[in-house]
Structure formats: structure tokens, C-alpha cells
Amino acid sequence: MKDNNRNKIEDMKSHLYDKEAGLSSHQIEGGLHSMGYKANPNWEREDKLDYQKQKEKMSKRKNHIFKNFFIGAIIFFVVAVGFAYFKFSNGVMTVSNSDIDIEVLGNAFTKGGDYLPLQIDVTNRNRADLELADLLVSYPSGADNKSTDLVRLPVINLGTIKSGQQLIRNIKVKLYGQEKSTRNVTITLQYHPTGSNAIFTKTKEYPVTISSAPLSLSVNAPDKEISDQEFTFSIKASLNTSLPNNTPSILQLSYPNNFVFESATPSASFSNNTWDLSNLSITNPVAITIKGRLVGQPGDEQIFHAYAGSVKSNNQSVVGVVYNSLVQSITISKPFLEADILVNNQDSTSYTASPGDSINASINWINNLSSLVTNAKVTVNLSGNVLDKNSIDPGDGFYDSTNNQIIWDQNSDSDLASIEPGGTGSLSFKFKTLSLIGDSNPVNNPEITIKVSISGDQPSLGTVSSINDFSSKTIKLLSDFQIASSAGYSSGPLPPKVGQETKYVVVWTLSNTSNMISGAVAKSILPVYVKWVGPLAGGNEDISYNLVTRQVTWNIGSVNSGVGLDSNREASFMVSLTPSTSQIGSIPQLMKSINLSGVDSFTNSPVTSNYGPITTTLSNDPNFKNGDQTVIQ
């Protein structure tokens, strides 16, 4: 059988690869027969039914998953409730702050500085105990609400507060502040829940109103001021009750940066802002008046702050506990009628002039109001220790020599009769400064002050109100700082002879009328034919010579006022002259002009002067005679 099958396979291979073989020669050993099938016309409905069955099957599977999850959640909840019940049954419970009550019993009003007794009730309504409970009490130490400036009472240990237990503790606090102000007493409970190391807190604020302060402060000050115009304000301290423990008390003022302090009555105990209140009593209040100026732009708000209280233990000039405080605000405003003073056509904050100078001054005024000003009047007050009153020229104004005033009104200037909003005008006058040379009494800090006031009526709603504004300028005089020089014969031929050396002693002398001079230096040059010998022995002045530049320098330094009047300051040195034939018949220079310079400490301005040159004409030498100055053969 196997051989037959093999022969058939071999026979098929030979026919398969035989080129002569054809399909017609193949023997068909078997064939397919057709079969009939009947298609169901509802095949689409069957597909839909199959899809619906699968969908229902998937839905049942999802419902089964959610059902299992819900059953698991119920089981977890039951287990959690059981666990909580187990913990509760064994004494471990949670604590809620809402079940802790802190009540404060006491007066809601107190006098500042008096002790206020308070009762603190702590009730634990939790089912658990509160362990290691402490009570902390704090309140402001003074009248200021500073979070860091607190009084903290010693910690009150409460131990364990059992469930349902109420504990009562009594404390005393001392509060300060302005009348009707409120101060908060803060009570904080710290505790550990039973079985826990965590610290929990509950805080209670108890407000207390200050019925009266032990010390009252009041201020009398303007709400508005013009920039750089002098004004005054006052602070009054009044005692309502005795101060606590008779502690030394002070009043301290804090000035804004733009305030220029000028004076105070009475004078301050420390610096210019702290006053001792030891004389303060219920029947004897303390009033302080301060004078000064605010410098700034219109609209700037400047704040003054006053404190009164006990002194700090380690610093007697600082308030430790504030009994009371107040704040005063002053706004810099624009002048109603503004007068701008110009000196020698210059608008500056400060001016300097020399003794004997002529001063041309003018006043440019303007109406800054939005309404009409009538009957305007401008008054200039001149004062100062170097004003030459006989030289005052009032221009179109009237000079009142009794009061040193120049006055302009509508009679002297018709523009002042009625000034429209924004209206302007100008007035002028002249005067001289006194010469200080030869004055036997030195003038310290020589200056002239020009003060201008401008006033007028402002018709408003049928009424007339007077307005008045001021401005001022100061002219400071430079000190008259001078140097003089003289020469005297020392040795050699006189008159000087060609080819022979004659020595001379040169003396430089200073004079200074009024102000201290700093950094003073004097310099001069020796001619090429003059030889430097050196300073005289015994002199204390710093004088030197430079061989290259041939410059003689006197480093003077500081020079007091009155030098040359009530004291002397001079330097001496020696030079020699060897004339040449080209100088026969001439009067040679021993030294060129002297240049003197320094800084006036009062005006903070440089001062300079010159003297010379020095020749062989020895006018200050008593042995000198006419002809001794000329070079001979």
C-alpha cells in the first residue's frame, strides 16, 4: 500500500516537471458538489439581539463591581465605628477647643495707671482631661499699641483640668492710654490632651476701656504753615491722678525731618526734645512752647509725636512706659499773598556781602488766592548789627526810621489797592553795610535781616477778612581778612650798591575783623635777583620757600576774629639783594604781591585779599631816610 502511494507521488512529480505534460492529461479523481443554504431574512435583528445581550452582560458585571465596593465601604465604616468605640471605652478621646470655655469677670472700665482686678474662669466641657495646662496673660505696657511692647504676667500653672471641671484664677493688670481708648487683655490657655504630646492653645481677648488717663496731653498748633516761616506751637501736660509709684516721668517730642528747631521755653532737659516732669502736679500742669520752621513743598504733611511716661531704667532720656501720647499733623501750605525777596537781583536761600557794600533789594509779590485782595500793604523790617541806617533808600515807600521799617500801601503804589487773582507787582529799596575796618570793637557774626510782611483784605460772601503772610532773608557779611607787609634794614650797604649784598627783614602781618577764618594761606614770589635767607629765629609760624618756583608760603591755618585789633599775628623772614648795573637808579622789588586766602566760618564762603609788592622803600624803618631805596654804583 505504501509502495502504491509512493509511486503515485513520484508519478505526480514527473508530470509536474514534464514540459510535455498538460492539464488535459490529468485524471480527475474526485470533485466538489454544490450544497444549498437558506438565508434568514432577519439576520440584522439577530445582530442587534446579540449586542443587547452583551450590553446587559457588561452592565451586570459593572453593577456587581459597584455592589462589592459599597459592601466594602459599609464594612469599613462598621469597623471604624467599632474602633472608635473601643478607643472611647478605653479612655482615649479627642479634645475640641469649642468645648473649652474661658470667661473673664471684672470691670470693663478702668483709670489709666490703676490696678484692675480680673477673675478668669476656665471650664473643660470635653469628655477628656486637659493635662499640663498653663494660663498666660499679656497686655500693652503703655499707651501705644505696639505688639512687641507688652507686659507678660508670670505663667499660671493649672495642672490637669478634668472633664467637666472649672478652675478660677484672679489676676491684676495695669493699663495706660488716652481717655476712651481701648486696651485688650489677652488670656491664652496652653494644654496637652490626655495621651498626647502635642501642645494646643485657646486665646481670649478681654477689651478694657480707659475711663481717664493718669496724665493728659494737649497741643496748640496750627494745621497749616508756610515753608521756612517761623511759627510756634505748645504742648501741655496735665496730671489727673498721682503717677504710679512716684516714678520719674518725662515728656518727649519726635520732630519730622523737615523741622528746623530754633528754641523752646522752658529749655529741654535732654537734647532739644525731652523735658523733665518732676514738677508736674494736679494743680501745676507743665506747658512747653517750641519755636521753629518747617521746610518743604506745599502739600507736604509733617507729623509731630508727643510721648509722656516713666523713664527707662537704663536711659533717663527715653520714655520706658508710655502713659499717654498724641500726634499732631501740620501741612505745608502756599502763602496767600507771596512776597519773594531778591538781593542784588539774586533769588537765593542765603546771601553774602562785604563790609561797606551797597545792597539793592527788591520784593516781587503775587496773589495766590483765587479771589480778589484789596487794601494790600507791604512792610519791610530791616535789622542787623552791620546795617548802615543812614544809607536806607526806600524808593517809592515810606521809611519809618523809629521802627526801621519801609512801608508801601495803595497811596504809594496804586497796584496795591486791588489785586486780582494771580496779580503780581514789584517794589525796590537800597541800603549799605557798615565798614568794619578800623572798628575797635569786633563785630561777631555780622548780618542783616530783611523781613517782609504783606497783608490785605479778602472780600468773601459780603464779609472782609484780613490775611497776612511773612517771608525773610538774611545777608551775612564776610570778615574783613587782610595781610600787610613791611621791610626793614638788616645789614650791608644802604643804599644798596651794585655787586654788594644788602639784607632785609620782611614782616607779614594779619588782621581779621569779625569771623573765624580757617585754612588760611599767604603766598608770594621772590624776584630772580633776590635771595632767600630764611625765617628769623624764634618764630612759631609755618613759613617755607620753594627753590624751584621761588615761592614763599605761610601756612597760617585758623585765624580768630579780632586779630590785628586786640591781638597780633605775624611772620618774619630775611631776604638779600645784590643789585646789578642794570638796576642803577631804580627802586628794586624785594617781593611781588602777596595773595591771602581762607574760608569764612560764619558764611562758609572763601575770602581773599592782596597786598604789595614790597620794595626797598623802607617806610616803616625809623632809620630809613629818603634816597636809601635807590641802587647806586
User: What is the molecular shape?
Assistant: elongated
CATH H level, superfamily name of the largest domain: Immunoglobulins
Number of domains: 4
CATH class call of the largest domain: Mainly Beta
SS-based structural class? mainly beta
Average pLDDT for all residues: 84
CATH hierarchy: architecture of the largest domain = Sandwich
Task: Detail the poorly predicted runs.
Answer: 23-31, 88-92
Strand % is over 45%
Q: What is the CATH third-level topology name of the largest domain?
A: Immunoglobulin-like
User: Rounded to an integer, what's the Rg over CA atoms?
Assistant: 54 Å
Q: How many E-type strands?
A: 40
Number of helices: 2
Q: Biggest sheet: strands, sense, closure? A: 7 strands, mixed
